[in-house]
């Protein structure tokens, strides 16, 4: 595929600079390459010193890597943001309604919109059936991955409703940009994102069980060796709440307590960054050393709130994804603002046949995979890789979905040779509590390798600061 | 605060203090090995640092002979030796990393930068002649950490646990250092024609930054019992046992409200012995006896702090 066929955020197909990027381009032309590389090295040094690192699984034990940070921002107009933010709020509202319905009356199954086979999905948690959660909210924090293919064409790639990560990069990248290029913020009125932790904390406090006055909120992490540990520590610090591990907590008298130097202290809301499977060795995986024995039982009895709730995985599963536009219509009576990517479900024989015949054009993903592990990008894979993947699909077709390879938009990015287009996506973080909101921005991921469409940090992707402009013009 | 957080802070401080003291011992041993003195062969010179760290067995299993190169390798760089400088600094950073939000960001950055530089130095390797520079570097980073802690950390319980760790460890290290040196030098002191070895005693003083203090306080030639007094009973000597307990006792007074009565009692008892003790009585008992007893008592306090605050109650 020729790079010029992609939509570029900064330049039109004829090469002229879009109005939105004009002040930036002007600034860029007055800044030489060596200077930008110097700033980039400075950023790397600062990130390393602060310890903003990411542990990569399968790498040498305890390896700490930096996620590459790109000094060129991605810029979105206020008008574009209005559509995107309304779209993701609508989507997350519908998904929460779906989860509440699925774990109660299952009207959407009765209506024949979602098949009953969804109850056989591994991510469906029968333990949650009939359990009321405060405010009917399941996905308190949702990261919706959005890609752009044309001027006014945005697609939702997936909804991350379990323990989405990356928001710390949204915040740290902004801090870094303001430090490295303060002059750019005089040319652009960039909407601030720094209040994210406050909005999150207010939401978490709002979902404590009724009757709890001044709730105690904690962040539950798997520990210092988890890939996103930096983010856990960062968010806990920003919110001024305790960062706890499973070993710090215990259950007693239908409550969860943390061990403190002054004795046990009751906890009301747990912002957990541990997967369902590891939460409670008594309920889920027995071998989990990360969880709290008895937690699920206390949770079901209303002794504590978990954010996100148990069992949200059934809604962000890649097979469930295809029903989200219908959910929007069913629960909200609205037309979806954002589109889905057309998706082939390989459990369906016709789809399977088509996909196997067109593997070199498609992206194939594991239904429950995340982080860019276990996926095939047809156009950029070798014949051997495609054949290997074909065998995996045939062994277990239900486990895969396929989508056309999207022409992800590109954004100018600093590389050794200069500033060149690289593919990007965007993950805004939607917060649900008293209301459903988001701060204007998100995690912009960029595939640093030329031509690569995989933006995941575990696959060498980098991040960019995302600027949502305040008002419709630059200042 | 969270027991585990307190535990990590306490051990972070202990490990940094331990690394600093190990660096002090190694540095002084190395410097003394450069001074011509026929009374000590290489083993007599290089065994005490290993003795101080209580690591004779592990050393003899993995190394043949107390040579400068072996002991420096073992005490400074060997990551299999849990009390080597590198291991202590690794542990300090691991503990810090686990609770980075419980300290000021300057403290975390100090510990993290220390560790990154350590990795760099290990990659470059350490030649014998560079050991003093390396030890100076460890000491200066430990000073920096202490200063950053003092200058930036909120005075809440977290701060108290950092301080507890520092002083429990320092009291232990000073007692071990003095004990080992005394055992090495005592035969010479007691021999009829015994000459007090000026260089040896002054080196002990230098290892705890007390050489100038000695001159100021006593304005006299160096006498072994005065050195002992300075390091045991003087409360104005920051690395003395008494000074350590002057810090520990009030911190425990504040922490032990409902919990940890036994900590408070142990600290009070140890403090009283140092506060009201007399050097003459200590010598009557035998300094070695006294120091061994002190190390056990100080250790008992450490165990009790662990039990009461750090392991986490149900």
Automatic annotation (TrEMBL), chain B:
Coiled coil: none annotated. Residues 1-310 form the DUF403 domain. Transmembrane segments: none annotated. InterPro entries: ATP-dep_Glu-Cys_Ligase-2 (IPR051680), DUF403 (IPR007296). It comes from the Bacteria. Pfam families: Alpha-E. This is Alpha-E domain-containing protein. It comes from Methylomonas fluvii.
């Amino acid at each position: 595929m020729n790079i010029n066929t992609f939509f570029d955020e900064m330049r039109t197909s004829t090469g002229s600079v879009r109005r939105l990027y004009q002040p930036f381009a002007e600034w860029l032309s007055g800044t030489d390459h060596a200077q930008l590389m110097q700033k980039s090295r400075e950023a790397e040094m600062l990130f390393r010193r602060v310890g903003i690192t990411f542990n990569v699984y399968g790498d040498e034990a305890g390896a700490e890597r930096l996620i590459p940070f790109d000094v060129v921002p991605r810029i979105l107009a206020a008008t574009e943001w209005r559509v995107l933010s309304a779209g993701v709020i609508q989507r997350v509202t519908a998904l929460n309604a779906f989860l509440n319905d699925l774990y109660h009356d299952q009207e959407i199954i009765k209506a024949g919109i979602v098949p009953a086979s969804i109850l056989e999905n591994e991510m469906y948690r029968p333990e949650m059936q009939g359990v009321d959660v405060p405010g009917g909210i399941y996905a308190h924090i949702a990261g919706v991955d959005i890609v752009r293919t044309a001027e006014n064409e945005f697609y939702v790639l997936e909804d991350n409703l379990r323990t989405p990560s990356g928001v710390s990069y949204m915040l740290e990248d902004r801090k870094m940009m303001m430090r490295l290029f303060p002059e750019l913020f005089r040319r652009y009125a960039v909407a601030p994102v720094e209040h994210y932790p406050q909005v999150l904390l207010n939401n978490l406090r709002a979902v404590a069980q009724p009757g709890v006055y001044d709730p105690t909120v904690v962040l539950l992490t798997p520990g210092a060796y988890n890939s996103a540990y930096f983010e856990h520590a960062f968010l806990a610090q920003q919110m001024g709440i305790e960062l706890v591990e499973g070993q710090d907590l215990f259950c007693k008298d239908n409550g969860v307590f943390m061990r403190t130097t002054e004795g046990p202290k009751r906890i009301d809301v747990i912002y957990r960054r541990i997967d369902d499977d590891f939460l409670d060795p008594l309920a889920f995986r027995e071998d989990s050393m990360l969880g709290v024995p008895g937690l699920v039982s206390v949770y079901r009895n209303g002794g504590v709130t978990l954010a996100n709730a148990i069992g949200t995985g059934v809604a962000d599963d890649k097979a469930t994804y295809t029903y989200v536009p219908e959910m929007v219509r069913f629960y909200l009576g609205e037309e979806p603002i954002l589109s889905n990517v057309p998706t082939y479900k390989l459990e369906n024989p016709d789809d399977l046949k088509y996909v196997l015949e067109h593997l070199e054009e498609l992206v194939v993903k594991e239904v429950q995979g995340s982080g860019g592990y276990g996926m095939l990008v047809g156009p950029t894979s070798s014949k051997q890789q495609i054949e290997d993947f074909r065998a995996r699909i045939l062994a277990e077709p239900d486990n895969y979905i396929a989508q056309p390879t999207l022409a992800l938009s590109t954004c100018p990015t600093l590389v050794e040779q200069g500033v060149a287009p690289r593919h990007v996506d965007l993950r805004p973080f939607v917060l649900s509590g008293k209301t459903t909101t988001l701060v204007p921005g998100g995690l912009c991921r960029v595939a640093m390798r030329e031509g690569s469409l995989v933006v995941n940090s575990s696959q060498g992707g980098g991040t960019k600061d995302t600027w949502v402009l305040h008002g419709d013009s630059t200042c | 605060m969270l027991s585990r957080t307190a535990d990590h802070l306490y051990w972070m401080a202990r490990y940094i203090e331990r690394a600093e003291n190990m660096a002090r011992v190694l540095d002084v041993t190395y410097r003394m090995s450069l001074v011509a003195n026929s009374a000590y062969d290489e083993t007599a010179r290089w065994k005490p640092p290993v003795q101080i760290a209580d690591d004779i067995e592990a050393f003899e299993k993995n190394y043949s002979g107390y040579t400068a190169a072996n002991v420096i390798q073992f005490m400074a760089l060997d990551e299999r030796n849990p009390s080597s400088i590198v291991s202590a600094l690794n542990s300090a950073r691991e503990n810090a990393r686990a609770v980075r939000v419980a300290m000021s960001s300057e403290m975390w950055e100090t510990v993290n930068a220390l560790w990154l530089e350590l990795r760099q130095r290990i990659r470059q390797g350490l030649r014998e002649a560079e050991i003093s520079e390396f030890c100076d570097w460890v000491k200066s980073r430990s000073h920096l950490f202490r200063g950053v802690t003092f200058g930036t950390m909120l005075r809440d319980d977290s701060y108290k646990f950092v301080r507890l760790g520092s002083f429990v460890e320092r009291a232990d290290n000073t007692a071990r250092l003095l004990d080992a040196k005394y055992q090495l030098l005592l035969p010479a002191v007691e021999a009829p024609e015994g000459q007090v070895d000026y260089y040896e005693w002054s080196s002990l003083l230098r290892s705890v930054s007390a050489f100038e203090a000695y001159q100021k306080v006593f304005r006299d030639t160096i006498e072994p019992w005065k050195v002992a007094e300075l390091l045991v009973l003087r409360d104005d000597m920051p690395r003395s046992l008494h000074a350590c307990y002057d810090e520990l006792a009030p911190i425990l007074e504040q922490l032990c409200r409902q919990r940890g009565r036994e900590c408070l009692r142990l600290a009070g008892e140890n403090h009283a012995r140092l506060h009201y003790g007399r050097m003459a009585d200590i010598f009557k008992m035998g300094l070695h006896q006294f120091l061994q007893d002190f190390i056990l008592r100080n250790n008992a306090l450490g165990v009790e702090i662990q039990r009461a605050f750090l392991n986490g109650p149900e």
